[in-house]
Each structure stands twice: as structure tokens, then as C-alpha cells.
Amino acid sequence: MESDYQCSIDISFISGDIQFDVWSDTQLFSFKSGLGFIAIPHFFFTLSQLYKSEIKEAQLDCHGNADYYKFYSDGIALFIEEHEIDYPKKEIYKYQFNIEKYLEAVDKGFKKHLKQLERKGLLPLKTQEFAHPLGDDVLNAFYNFSSLLNN
After folding, report:
1. What is the DSSP string of 35-62?
2. pLDDT tens track for 105-139
3. Half-sphere exposure of residue 101, counting CA atoms within 13 Å on the CB side?
């Protein structure tokens, strides 16, 4: 497993679609979903539970299609299965990361994305819109996730 992970984030304010890319020299995993206001908090909560060993596995659905992800952890490694359901065939892609380094990359990537949006004047939101992919509920989920790593 590589020790230097990178992360980039793409969040559409119009469609609500999200994509979190984490990569190393040997692999790239993209977590994609619609309905970012649901997917992002679920993603952060699941990673937090896996990191604290409160759960060993979880499934996250891709809102907007039938694809889904399975996340597993043994406390050191994070194993991810990406299940792409493209009828009539089904593809499964497998990834393995160091869980702590994966979470640190996501934390750093999300903070960088938020700072870029602040510089553009898009954050903080002027009004809280229902189902905004970076509304208060989403940001609070991130801050809870981030505080876990920084304690």
C-alpha cells in the first residue's frame, strides 16, 4: 500500500452530483453519487465508524443508479468494492488503502475544496437551501469527521 494518497473533490451545486477521487501510484478509486446532501454525510459517517472500529463493513448506494459500494476495514486497511450494475453484466472492482491515510487524504481534499469555494465567493452559503450539497448538515458531518482525525 502506498503512503502518499491524493484526493480531489467535485460537487455540482446544480445537479447535486458528487465525486470524491482518492488515488495513489497504483490505484484510483472514485466515490460517485447523486444527491450529495445525502451521500456526503453518509460517506463521512461510514468512514468514521469504520475508523473507530464501530462497524466492520457498510454498503453505500449511488443515488441515481443501481451501483453501490461496499466498505470493509480490519482496523488498518480499508477495502472497497465498487459494484457497477450495467445490465446484463455486473462488474466488481476492488481497492485497498491504509484506512488512516485514506481518511487523511479525504479530509485534506475536502478542506482544499471548501477553501477554493470560499475564494470564489460560493461559501458560506447566503441562504440555506433544502438539499444543497454543501448545506449546514453536510458541513457539520464533515466537521465531525475531520475532528475525529485531528484529535
Report:
1. -HHHHHHHHHHHHHHHHTTS-SEEEEE-
2. 999 999 999 999 999 999 988 877 788 999 999 99
3. 15
